[in-house]
Design a protein that fits this description.
It contains 13 helices and 14 strands. By secondary structure, it is an alpha+beta fold. The protein has two domains: 200 residues, 3-Layer(aba) Sandwich (Alkaline Phosphatase, subunit A), CATH 3.40.720.10; 129 residues, no CATH class. Helix 2 crosses helix 13 and helix 12 packs antiparallel against helix 13.
Length: 350
């Protein structure tokens, strides 16, 4: 858990920042290899440690790790994130229903080639998702880019569907990936009716990660402090709404490496004036890692240091500033990994 005992604290979560050393980077991590004068200054001023936020028996994903960082007990951390993503988009999930994530994925030679609609523009994905073929007893919602949600009736059959995240199962045969999904009549019809081809590339909608309703404690109940959350990723917004924190609107945030970092920095500086804690979440470090773009990750870390962390650091005076990764994401395999992550603070004691 992160310590929020100071009068004022800014926590910057760089999603998937940390990973093991890479031979192509002179046996350094992307963070070690990148030119980061502001982060280096913060390390010299304070402390840089390694810490594991993921509970032992859970998979290292953003929902689990961020909730653990915020002090939520493992016993009430949900199995999957789709319900919290529904909350973030004001989608109602009734007590007799479940939510599932639904990626727009690319197929090649009957294997999963891309988890994020590779080859399609944002406009393409939005158009296709808004023209989906609907299925009775199943509600479809387009969230952003390749991300969508399905809401359907809860059943034992649905609850027994194994969790096979697409970003963790690249190259898996579509038959193996969907065999349990296709046992359900509604999911079978939805998947089969919405396969399509664009420029000789095959695509489909892939439901995964069954999620039920959950009640989380508020941030103020846990820590006795007010909190503002600067983010765009649906899961993080969902966590924020469930924990009753303030979430200001951002105009140019994308949840990827093309996000407006200066806008986010300005919002952090503004929100710390009226809140005890400000949490800023940056998703681009995770997205670029999933794409296995090692150099892209290094360049984005350098841009983060220059356009985001530097602006905040030079504006906050003696306020406690913590920079932390939630989990490891390998830019070699594109997968999340269990293991220690970087935690950097401008004060000697976390």
């Amino acid at each position: 858990m992160i310590n929020f005992d100071n009068k004022k604290t800014i926590l910057i979560i760089l999603d998937g920042l940390s990973e093991e050393r890479i031979s192509e980077l002179s046996n350094l991590t992307p963070l070690e290899y990148a030119l980061t004068p502001t982060i280096d200054k913060i390390k010299d001023q304070g402390v840089h440690i390694k810490k594991v936020f993921c509970p032992d028996k859970r998979d290292p994903d953003s929902m689990t790790c961020i909730l653990s960082m915020l002090g939520v007990e493992e016993s009430i951390i949900p199995r999957n994130r789709a319900y919290l993503e529904a909350i973030s988009s004001n989608i109602i999930v009734n007590e007799d229903e479940v939510a599932m994530r639904c990626n727009l994925v690319k197929i090649m030679d009957n294997k999963l080639q891309s988890f994020n609609g590779e080859g399609l523009s944002r406009c393409d994905m939005a158009f296709i998702s808004h023209n989906i073929k609907t299925v009775e007893n199943l509600r479809f919602y387009h969230i952003s880019d390749y991300r969508n949600l399905l809401i359907l009736k809860r059943s034992e059959e649905i609850m027994e569907i194994p969790d096979l995240p697409p970003h963790e199962n690249m190259g898996m045969s579509i038959e193996d990936l969907t065999k349990d999904l296709l046992k359900n009549e509604e999911l079978f019809k939805f998947i089969e009716d919405n396969k399509f081809v664009v420029n000789n590339n095959e695509y489909m909608f892939y439901p995964w990660g069954v999620s039920e309703a959950v009640k989380l404690p508020s941030f103020e109940e846990l820590h006795g402090k007010t909190c503002s959350l600067i983010c765009n990723a649906e899961i993080v917004k969902g966590i924020g709404k469930a924990m009753k924190v303030h979430i200001p609107d951002l105009k140019n945030s994308t949840g990827d490496i093309d996000t407006d970092l200066k806008e986010k920095a300005r919002m952090v500086i503004k929100e710390i004036e009226t809140h005890d804690v400000v949490i800023a979440h940056i998703n681009g470090t995770d997205e670029v890692s999933h794409r296995k773009d090692i150099l892209g990750k290094v360049l984005f870390i350098e841009r983060l240091d220059r356009e985001f962390i530097n602006e905040i650091y030079n504006s906050i005076g003696r306020i406690k500033l913590i920079i932390a990764s939630d989990h490891q994401t390998s830019s070699i395999t594109g997968k999340h990994k269990m293991g220690p992550v970087d935690v950097i603070c401008n004060q000697k004691y976390l």
